[in-house]
């Protein structure tokens, strides 16, 4: 915020201060005695570069801001709402100013040099490019509405006239470096600085205005805008601070701000090198023309450079407000030059806060802007703070007050530095010579441990300083000798406890208030408690599972029995409280492991970052978390008390007020510190599952009743003055340069909704200073301003012209006698008009030249001139009918072309309507894709059935469809009667809701076939999502889709069976080795269930139609598909569901004497196949330990299993032939691949063969010749012939693999009597005959040889 130093700060007449901070504008109500934050203006996406109020009555609540995001926004400071956003700039806007003269004129400038004028009442804009330079600042004249001063980066100041398209009036040269600020004298004229003694001197003084400028070249200049030069130059003095050495780089970090206060025409306020403010008396003689603000006492001035100043008048006095790099806003009395109050602000995250145990209400804040604030919260002055930044070059992440030495404050920083500040002295901090490698998490005071405890025994040391950092080490520093090397306490812990392994990295530590024990949190979630001074391990708390963030011992002030309570917070969002008093009072010989908490406090939804026990209660604990809330707990009752949600970001620190039992202080990543009361909170628990984004959204909705972040009131509570004014990364870099680079914003808030402002006031002549209009006849006017003698000679010459012959060479209305045209005949007047017109054209005043032609009666010529120059306007067009219809029509067409070049197509089309060119207007709108306006025009002026309307709808629909706006395109198709296309375009999105809407639309429009198709597509999408209720609703109104309704009902039923296998009795099946176990349901399973349900639907329909043969075929297709698809669990469930008794008689009416069909036999074989595997798996589970009763049962049921159905010889022949054909085809493919890859060695060629060729290796071993393409082709023909001779019924309805069943039967027969000897023999015979293929030969050989 502080680095963009154009008018980022401004005060309204009512005392409302607005200033830019990052991407937000904050509003503060100020007076001579106090200040109150009233709200914020949120919406910019980048840094706010400038801000200004409208200082005119009636709209003083309106303000304007500019930003590096290239926008200019108008706001209502009362409603905090956005009125208008203007994006006329293409680059970052660096300055904006509201004209003090014209209440509707706002001028802005960007970094590329473009100046834009905004007219607030009409919304019109006009842009100029006076200079190709970077604009740093600009200011509108308070005396002449059209004069604007612009300051540039290279030191140039340009005075422009915005009424003449940015015409440059003066270029003010004198500064050698950046122009930082411009301020006009509040009174007109240039005589305010001089006291002329003679009339001649009065003539020298111009009638212009005075302008003050401040530059980085260390000078303040006063300029005469009439003469265009500097009249006063003031050199900044260097004010050496008392007791401090001169900083050689302070002059390089200068920012020179100037302000000419209202009512003080001879006094100018400016900033100086080191934060001082000076009041310059321009009439004062002598060397020192300035007075210093706050000179009566030390500490009143800013301690860093001042960036912005603004003044306003109260009833009692005139106040000055200033902002500085030290992030403080100060209010000054301009009459006494004394400080009224200071509003401190924060420029980074609040990492640490803690109250002094000795100072009453003294609060220390560690902030990410590399500074420490010490706040006397009990002071009568508001926000009585002191800032400490010397020696700190990184974020302050840890703080700790000394328990006994008042004013001693230890701190740790992000770069690993540890030091001690004496807050009551002006000395620089003492810095430890031992640096941590990473961020310091915690600093704490505690009793010394060896080796420093040896010095303590001699009375030299009572407290040591301990620091814990990100690398996992804890260092002990000697506060009396920080230059000495710090001691790593891990060495002492290992020696005392005889630990050989590496200790877990430490993340936090906390000394018990009595100093007898210390708790150390570790990265692995473990908390170790050690006894001082030798750090013997007493116990280990193993409760957390993530990194420990904070530890706090109970104070035990009122209840000593609670002094052993230790509260801990980690990254797992749960706070644990452990009672360690038994361990501390009776420590054992070995360490105790504690795994059960005394109390468990659950409710936060993100990691815990801070804890604090109340000093006023025994059982109250407050915690803060990354969920953006602070929670107060009743620890003993294990219940929440209240929850504070006033912050806008993650919370980092908390402390209970030592003076007020109802007050808690919190700080976090929203750059704020809040003081809030426990008794006034609305909530008692943190938001469940709420993320910070949702929390911010909720807070914005209630912002009208609640104050925004920082500085005043939050939820009715007093807040710290910590306003979020810049990101900490920006401020980190600011310590090393005067103008640090701007970084992108970390957290952007949602812009406020735009509210259109209706301006009910009109611009009156009295509200602005009258300007002198441009002369229509400048040449003749200039001739009347010559010397007296020449004017007298003109009178004599004119007398000769009017009463006798004109003198030789005198032509009235031309040349040197052009002004005679007013006093001679009409011919002379016309000649004067011609001369004046030429002069206007040369000067670029085309409008005036046109009006001269109008005055001469040449209306057609005036229109022609305006047409040629592109200067036609509505006024000239209104005069065109006076010249006749043809001239008017041509003028309108010319004006239309001009408007099209200006991209004002709607206005151009409207003018075409005036000459009855309706179709041309429609084509103009359509050619520029203004279909909405073109359709409105056609519907208003042409019949409803005109083909042009349909063409427009179709064209618009095509464009919308191409851009992905399917709903809008569907409306266009419906309007032109193409309901089919409307439904199709909606369905293009191909998701359930769009398909359902498209189906309903098609049904309403009578497209039944399309509606059914789309409904079916929608049903499939809903089936994939398992939304069965919606699926049935979609199909309810389509009688033609009843079969699909049945299909999806079966799919839902199958899914429920698979999800709940206990619905139907399923025989126990052990985990198989050949088939995978049940798989998790996924899109693959859903697809399989849909396919299976479709096959079941076909079988069910055949069953209802009493087509028994076809029913068997469909059932066979269903079972065969389930088995071949690889989903064996699905195959098992299906078989038990359809055939619970293992027989197909429920679907078949064939008598046992009749020959079953091939489909029936194949279906029965699949059921026997399943039963075979179930028997095998059951034997595998039992491991051969059958009881006699089980064997008897197997003997009784073995004859009825029907396993011989699996050993079909014809089926085995077909399958053997098919395997042979497949192997030969693989060999042929390998030969083809071999010939294509010539040059590869034999090993690579062998690897290319799919069948491999166990057969080739065997033939090679037998001395046979390798198989050729011809021999393989002959074998292929042979097997194909054999295959063709086998029964078609066997080939049409394949059964399970016969050889596979043979192998399983033989394996089962080795351990069970279920398999008869006949089955074993038949299995062996089939393996001998057909088990020659490569995939079965090895396994079959084991049983054949046996």
From TrEMBL:
Residues 821-1028 form the Gem-associated protein 5 TPR domain. Keywords: Repeat, WD repeat. It comes from the Eukaryota. Residues 681-784, 1235-1265 are annotated as: Disordered. WD repeats lie at residues 41-85, 210-233, 601-635. Residues 84-184 form the Gem-associated protein 5 first beta-propeller domain. Residues 707-725 have a biased composition (Low complexity). Residues 1089-1187, 1190-1331 form the Gem-associated protein 5 RBS domain. It holds the Pfam family Beta-prop_RIG_2nd. Residues 681-697 have a biased composition (Basic and acidic residues). GO terms for cellular component: nucleus; SMN complex. GO terms for molecular function: mRNA 3'-UTR binding. One of its GO terms (biological process) is spliceosomal snRNP assembly. Residues 360-669 form the Gem-associated protein 5 second beta-propeller domain. This is Gem-associated protein 5. It comes from Mugilogobius chulae (yellowstripe goby). The lineage of its organism: Eukaryota, Metazoa, Chordata, Craniata, Vertebrata.
